[in-house]
Design brief:
The protein has 363 residues and is mainly α. It has 16 helices and no strands.
Length: 363
């Protein structure tokens, strides 16, 4: 494979993959409105254009070529339709608007069928196809620009500028190539340049449209050691808040965390709630990602209070740890130092030596 052919293929299929991903995301997340559906159709049509303008795909498409050409030819219509749905707040599709789809498909397929002929009908079909295509691009730009000054949605105003620039560039690329080389073979270098421009615009659109939800991919960092995660109880339903209240009562008032080896299953039985329900509300309402971290918060708090109490200065640290729910000294020491930044003995010496009873800052 020649280097230029490889580059062209790589660019085309990179852009194709991004466009298909955008179409799928739009259909998943925005299919309820005309704007989302039309934009998904447009991105799919640009993906189809990348294939239609690539000779190996055209030659190997077989019976699927007419469908591929139909989607490809409809691109200007879908762009024009999406522009109206996005930028006209009271937009409602009307049947006459679809006449432009019939026109661009009819003239497009006619020009393809008569390709290579020097007849008047062939020239007329090509001219009318390009005229409809340019008219749709121009009107889409006009729709985006017309109410720019009156738009109160700042993010949409910014998108109008991006839309105008992108459509002007994309329309110029596609229309320019088709008009200049109508009925002739497009030079390979020019096809690659056009595909690269589409890839750049597609990449920019993907950066604008795609957002990563850190919570869905578990990318949110846990709370710093020693700091209780921020409460999100306002996000819970009334029933969930009631269940969370029972959990807090069991832990904070009944001190169930003192039970060595306490599991979430045992806690669920105590509060008479399903285990999966408890996992969800502790995570969603209190922000904890791990049940042991949830228990350790209360256990370490109890031991910190005891270590700072002169009346319990002679009680061994092991006893305090066991009373708080730890099964042995090693996991307690590790958890304590991770949270406080000091060993338990150093913390006791510091507190009793200074006479302070305030909590140490998280280490």
């Amino acid at each position: 494979m020649l280097p230029t052919t490889f580059s062209d293929s790589a660019i085309r299929f990179a852009a194709f993959g991004i466009l298909i991903l955008l179409s799928a995301l739009l259909l998943r997340d925005a299919r309820q409105g005309w704007a989302g559906r039309a934009t998904a159709a447009f991105t799919a049509s640009v993906a189809a254009y990348l294939l239609c303008s690539y000779a190996p795909v055209r030659e190997g498409a077989g019976v699927f070529l007419p469908l591929l050409l139909f989607v490809c030819l409809a691109g200007p219509f879908f762009l024009w339709f999406a522009a109206q749905a996005i930028f006209i707040d009271d937009f409602k599709p009307r049947f006459p608007q679809f006449a432009s789809l019939v026109a661009i498909e009819g003239f497009g397929f006619t020009s393809i069928a008569l390709q290579g002929e020097a007849s008047l009908w062939a020239l007329l079909a090509v001219f009318l196809h390009h005229a409809v295509m340019i008219a749709l691009y121009v009107h889409a730009l006009y729709v985006a620009w017309r109410s720019y000054g009156d738009d109160l949605i700042e993010s949409r105003r910014e998108f109008r500028r991006l839309f105008i620039g992108s459509v002007a560039a994309l329309g110029s690329i596609i229309a320019g190539v088709e008009i200049t080389f109508a009925g002739r073979v497009v030079p390979a270098g020019l096809e690659t340049t056009a595909a690269a421009a589409i890839l750049v615009l597609t990449f920019a659109l993907a950066l604008l449209a795609i957002r990563i939800d850190p919570n869905r991919l578990f990318l949110v960092p846990p709370a710093e050691p020693g700091r209780q995660p921020p409460s999100r109880t306002n996000e819970l339903s009334a029933g969930d808040r009631h269940s969370l209240g029972l959990v807090r009562k069991a832990i904070e008032e009944d001190r169930l965390y003192r039970k060595d080896g306490l599991t979430i299953s045992a806690l669920a039985k105590t509060v008479k709630a399903p285990e999966h329900h408890l996992r969800r509300i502790i995570n969603a309402g209190l922000g904890y990602r791990n049940f042991n971290a949830f228990l350790n918060y209360y256990r370490i708090d109890e031991v910190k209070t005891a270590l700072a109490d002169p009346a319990r200065a002679r009680i061994p640290i092991l006893t305090l740890a066991l009373d708080a729910g730890y099964g042995s000294l090693a996991p307690f020491n590790r958890a304590f130092k991770e949270r406080v930044g000091l060993t338990p003995s150093a913390y006791r010496k510091l507190k009793l030596g200074s006479g302070e009873n305030d909590d140490m800052p998280a280490g």
